[in-house]
Description:
Blueprint (H helix, E strand, L loop, with lengths): L8 H10 L6 E5 L2 E10 L13 E4 L3 E5 L4 E9 L5 E2 H7 L14
Antiparallel strand pairs: 1-2, 2-5, 3-4, 4-5, 5-6
Amino acid sequence: GLIDWTADADRIARLVRACQPWPGTYTRWRGKLLKIIEASAAAGQGPLTSSPGEVVAMGDRGLGVTTARGVLKLHRLQLEGRQVADAGEFRVGYTELVGAVLGSEAP
């Protein structure tokens, strides 16, 4: 269930769907497990300047993660030790997530 952000967004979205509810899909952020509960490939994304795994803001409260090809739009996620939250709630609670690179162990 470990997400490889160098794959394309469609492939990762299919992996997230296939692995729910078990075994689940996850990545790492600030040394903690970050489960991706629900996500989809964002349509109509142009060329990206971000590196794979970088979290980007989508609209007012949305979150996305750049991949090798496209953006994975996050719908529901869960940080280790916390409850499942929709992307908007998560973004409000963890403002420092935007701009972070997932999968990296650096704080």
